[in-house]
Design brief:
The chain is mostly helical and 217 residues long. The chain has a domain of 139 residues. The chain is built from seven helices and two strands. Strands 1-2 form a two-stranded antiparallel ribbon. Helix 1 packs antiparallel against helix 3 and helix 3 packs across helix 6.
């Protein structure tokens, strides 16, 4: 395939199937609408407790369905990551083959080698070029079982994602790390779904627009 547009066209049907699979898993959480407690404000704790218990009795079946949906989603979380990892792989390969970028962001000049400069393309998410996020997320997903730490610059990219979230905790002595992108988080095996969610790749159109923009650049 000689051009980026051909690559995008030739992979379109496969990537659309991947996004359909992603949507199927995400729909698990949307099966049941989560009921919302809206009590009448009262200074009397006993009255608030009475309202809460009445709300629980009224919505017990819905709350149980929501709990079951959440458990099913968690059970399928790595399957979801597998699909998201495949999407990231297609995008990463496209950048590898067709990006002609030679510019390097100042904060990555000491981290990017000749083979990774091409990924410093695309819009910024949390202050990081989209191509670099794709590069790091694809590497993490592909090597999630590696006993060694994630290598640079992927490690630096995840550290920035975890730190540059724009939120603060009152009284915190150290910067708050977003657990969804903290590579030291033992609860996560793959970060592929979290990353594709952050960059808003939940449909083919968003993916294609970003990929075309990066490859044309």
């Amino acid at each position: 395939m000689k051009t980026a547009s051909t690559y995008i066209a030739k992979t379109e049907s496969a990537v659309r199937q991947l996004f359909q699979g992603v949507d199927n898993y995400l729909r698990i959480l949307k099966r049941t609408k989560l009921p919302i407690l809206t009590p009448n404000l009262s200074p009397d704790p006993a009255e608030y407790k009475r309202q809460y218990e009445a709300w629980m009795d009224e919505n017990r079946s819905n709350l149980e369905e929501v709990r079951q949906n959440q458990q099913e989603f968690i059970a399928e979380s790595f399957a979801l990551d597998t699909l998201c990892g495949a999407i990231l792989h297609v995008a990463q390969k496209g950048i590898e083959l067709y990006s002609n970028n030679v510019g390097v962001p100042d904060d990555f000049k000491k981290l990017l080698g000749k083979q990774t400069v091409k990924y410093a393309v695309g819009r910024e998410v949390r202050g990081i070029r989209l191509g670099l996020i794709i590069y790091a997320a694809r590497n993490q997903h592909t090597h999630f079982d590696c006993k060694e730490d994630l290598r640079q610059p992927s490690k630096a990219i995840f550290n920035k994602l975890a730190l540059q979230h724009g939120s603060e905790l009152d009284g915190a002595e150290e910067p708050f790390l977003d657990p969804a992108f903290d590579i030291a988080n033992p609860r996560l095996v793959s970060f592929a779904s979290n990353v594709t969610g952050l960059i808003e790749w939940r449909n083919y159109e968003n993916y294609r627009n970003d990929l075309a923009d990066m490859l044309e650049a």
